[in-house]
Hints:
Elements: E1 10-18, H1 24-33, E2 46-55, E3 58-67, H2 74-77, E4 86-92, H3 96-100, H4 102-112, E5 118-124, H5 136-145, E6 149-152, H6 161-177, E7 182-188, E8 192-198
Parallel strand pairs: 1-3, 1-4, 4-5, 5-6
Antiparallel strand pairs: 2-3, 7-8
Keywords: Cell membrane, GTP-binding, Lipoprotein, Membrane, Nucleotide-binding, Prenylation, Protein transport, Transport
Family: Belongs to the small GTPase superfamily. Rab family.
Main location: membrane
Amino acid sequence: MVLKTIEYDYLCKIVVIGDSGVGKSNLLSRYNKNEFSVGKLSTIGVEFSTKTLKIDNKLIKLQLWDTAGQEKYNSITESYYKGAIGALIVYNIADRNSFNNLEKWLKKFRENAHQDYGIMLVGNKSDLKEYREVSTLEGKQFAEKHYMQFIETSALDSNNVETAFNNLFNFIYYSLFKNKTMTLDINNNGNNNSNIMVGDCEPIQFDQRYTINKPVYDCC
Length: 220
């Protein structure tokens, strides 16, 4: 029997949630591949991708879950929140309804996620300034009220996309992992569970391929 080699030191499950059409899939595509697709079809159910970061000679594997925003997929997508220790909750700055629905998404995540987690509130499509329906101040106030980080991004022109993901992971690393041992129950499609032990972490230094800023509520 051949044993599989674990190709990472730490595993971090992050979900990207929010209404349909706010740009979740393009945010992930821009972060992972620096690509943007005009007219990209809405996600059906859940899509999955990974990204590995090298920090202090440790490999950090991110599981990035892109969840559908349509109501009919709720029963499917909520099951994938289990074990998540991070979330990007996304709204469209040019769509008031997507902002009004943030409470719903936040509640669903907190009911299903790991007991310790970090959340980044993302006001996407900042390139649509002339059509803005949600002010930057409103986004900041919502984030502060619910103890989240906040940033405005544009998947179209890539503004702040990498910063949004990296600041979230930075917050998780320093606030949840640093000098603390915790076991993460990673649920893989509801079939296989693996326990990843995280502990005794030192302050991180990303290699030259990645930029990390200390977590802040106002980062744009």
